[in-house]
């Protein structure tokens, strides 16, 4: 019988550090995507925000997974310009509050936390799948994670499925016409471009998979 995977604060720290590294590596690409349909600042904003998160957590006292995520969310709100800061800040704070004060959490609790994150993003951004936003990557990723966990898949398999679904959702934004945010001003000219928010969201799920795999 397989032992159920349990993850803790070190996993969350590694996840956020991996996310910061991925965003830093892809900063110029994210900015290039945003230049086509936005303000050309998504890469810079996300890099600044996640770098600030890593610095904040490095200076913080040892804490619970939930507290780390709420701290990360608050840091993103205060350091990231545009829509990304409030959206990712809300996502991580909702996830953190869902995890509560426990020292560790299991796969089902991770799924619940990310479902809460998605709910927060949808509420704040008033965006649904198909609107050409980060929701197009986040929603399928969360669904895939939950589906895998509910059928008893190992955590590593579940987060791998979530990462794959996020990347598929990211690519699926290319033919869409944006109906939310700065890109919506372009109308049909937004068609044919990959959404930068969905792209950075996929990077965050790549980071999650790396963190969980390293811990396991």
Account of the protein in words:
This protein has 216 residues and is mostly helical. It has one domain (6-215): DhaL domain (Serine Threonine Protein Phosphatase 5, Tetratricopeptide repeat, Alpha Horseshoe), CATH 1.25.40.340. Helix content is 69%, strand content 3%. It has helices spanning 9-25, 27-37, 42-59, 65-79, 84-99, 107-125, 135-150, 155-171, 196-215, and strands at residues 6-8, 104-106. It has a two-stranded antiparallel ribbon with strand order 1-2. Helix 1 runs parallel beside helix 4 (65-79), helix 2 (27-37) crosses helix 3 (42-59) and helix 7 runs parallel beside helix 9. The protein is globular, with a radius of gyration of 16 Å. It starts with 5 loop residues before the first strand and ends with a helix.
List the helices and strands and how they pair.
Blueprint: E1 6-8, H1 9-25, H2 27-37, H3 42-59, H4 65-79, H5 84-99, E2 104-106, H6 107-125, H7 135-150, H8 155-171, H9 196-215
Antiparallel strand pairs: 1-2
């Amino acid at each position: 019988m397989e032992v159920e995977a349990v993850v803790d604060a070190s996993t969350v720290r590694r996840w956020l550090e991996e996310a910061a590294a991925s965003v830093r590596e892809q900063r110029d690409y994210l900015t290039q995507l945003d230049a086509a349909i936005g303000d050309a600042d998504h890469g810079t904003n996300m890099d600044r925000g996640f770098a600030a998160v890593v610095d904040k957590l490095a200076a913080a006292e040892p804490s619970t997974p939930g507290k780390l995520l709420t701290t990360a969310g608050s840091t993103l709100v205060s350091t990231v310009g545009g829509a990304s800061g409030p959206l990712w800040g809300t996502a991580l704070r909702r996830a953190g509050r869902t995890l509560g004060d426990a020292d560790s959490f299991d796969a089902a609790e991770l799924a619940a936390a990310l479902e809460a994150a998605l709910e927060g993003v949808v509420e704040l951004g008033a965006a649904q799948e198909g609107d050409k936003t980060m929701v197009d990557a986040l929603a399928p990723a969360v669904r895939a994670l939950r589906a895998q966990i509910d059928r008893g898949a190992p955590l590593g398999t579940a987060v791998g499925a979530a990462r794959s679904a996020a990347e598929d959702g990211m690519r699926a934004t290319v033919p869409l016409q944006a109906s939310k945010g700065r890109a919506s001003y372009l109308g049909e000219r937004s068609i044919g471009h990959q959404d930068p928010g969905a792209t950075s969201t996929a990077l965050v799920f790549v980071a999650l998979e790396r963190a969980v795999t390293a811990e396991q």
